[in-house]
Amino acid sequence: MHDDKYFVPFKLTFRERTHTRENRFQGKYYESLGEYKTRFDLRPIRNIIVRQNSSDDDSAIYEIFNRLNSGGVNLRPQEIRASLYHSAFYDMLHHINADPAWRRLVGRAEPDLHGKDLEILLRGFAMLEDGDNYAPSMIKFLNQFSLKRKKTKPENNEYLENLFKSFLHACSDLPDNVFFTERSRRFNIALYDAVFSVVCRSAFSNKQLIDGKIEARSVRNLEVDSHFIAATRYGTTKTVNVKTRMERAKTLIKMI
After folding, report:
1. Which residue in 25, 72, 164, 168 has the fewest CB atoms around it within 10 Å?
2. Residue 212 included in any domain
3. CB-based contacts of 152: which residues, under 8 Å, 6+ apart?
């Protein structure tokens, strides 16, 4: 620990107190701990190892992590998810999240600090691949998809990246705010994942890329469709509402 090749020089510093003696470790380095150095070296570090018996589901691990996530600055679900399920697939998500064409659609030049835009990308891919089998909750659905994607082969991640880029090309003639709700001026995740899933579905099924452009008017027609609106107003992650949004997107979204 005293080798600066591996560790940054560290000096103990404590808050100053009035009318009390200075802490005996104030200003000490590892090498200057003296008689306390051996005690420090032998000090045990306690660890808790959590293992879930079921190999195909680790929801208990996520739940433990989530319940420990209290006090201070709490992590968002996507931040926990990115920590538990980090993989080459997530590296790919980070890469496409920086694409200027994608940044244009989400309306922010820089990625979100808490991974909100990463979750949008993740949700789009999850709905594309497993949307037909969707069941609440959305958090569990995205966790299971993230777990599955940890086993993805490199060539599959490469294909998904290229598929997404072809989707961005299909959106190139759309307005910057095409996925923003007109009234709230906020990014409409339900609108995005419905359009993304429907536009990519045929190409994804045949391991091809998207050919053509999305008709801007058709996206607007979907956004103002009464059935689509009803499926986004309350209980947006209920199975019936998710399926309704996908069905309306299949009917209304057009390619040119």
Report:
1. 72
2. yes
3. 87, 88, 89
